[in-house]
Amino acid sequence: MASLADIRARLAAQENKGQNKNSGNQSDNAIYPFWNIDEGATSTVRFLPDGDNNNSFFWVERQVIKLPFNGVKGDSNVKQITVQVPCVEMYGDNCPVLAEVRPWYKDDTLKDMANKYWKKRSYVFQGFVRQNPLGDDKTPANPIRRFVITSQLFALIKASLMDPELDELPTDYQRGLDFNIKKTTKGGYPDYTTSTWARKESSLTEAEQAAIEAHGLYNLADFLPKKPSEAELRIIKEMFEASVDGRPYDNDKWGAYYRPYGLEAPAGAVSAVSEVTQEAAVVATTNTVASVVEDEVPFEVDQPIVVPTTNTSSDKAQDILQMIRARQQNKA
Length: 332
Description:
The chain has 332 residues and is of the alpha+beta class. It has eight helices and eleven strands. The chain is globular and about 55 Å long.
């Protein structure tokens, strides 16, 4: 288990690196949906270490890309869908989507479009729910829950860990700290920036320690998306181009790989990648696919996207990708 000093050193190293660059589990109610608490309510959780001792942090980072489509090919009843795919920068590889999107930020008229396809980060933690204002939430047989934390909350957690006045690692079994997730609103949207660590240290209860002994800790990396193969990366690139062009989702071509919740795979297809479930949510698994925690939570709201237009035919959705590439070639 990493010490607080180890975590601080690694966080500092990541910050320096960023500045130098300029830059098989089922849906078992294990994910705690704290975003469903009422405005003004507080959920108190106690984070636990990663079951993987090689992870210095008590979380893992997920990076995904959301691809919106204008319905499903051949189905006029479906208007808008979104398909979520893993970003392979999460594994240290080059992402074909971000390679296309990065240069868009150099053009002010394309920044909103770039934001639309930029990777979304979230963080997977585990721990106990110690104060639960959700009356209809049922604690599973294994009370060690998983938490999908967005960047807003993670920034608070990270800043606190770097505070020199923090003496102990918050996940310490005897001298750790609870984390209070407080829900307010800002600009009409849920806001969690008033969330705080508890002021006093506390030890795990006998029941909590017994649960750890009985069930063990999750290896959090098990809940990262499956790393795409070369063939799957080609599918992702093809889906991205279709999305930018404004074409509908083609289930016959892509349904065996990535598809939205509620859409069945095409007949005879063998699912190569997991299917998104509705429960805020966990991706359904097969014997050959690792499970994935979905970050489709209601408090992470994408900003409205303004599609760039000109006085030519490029104001049509299917021409956007060609327009973007043409601009890049002209600037080269």
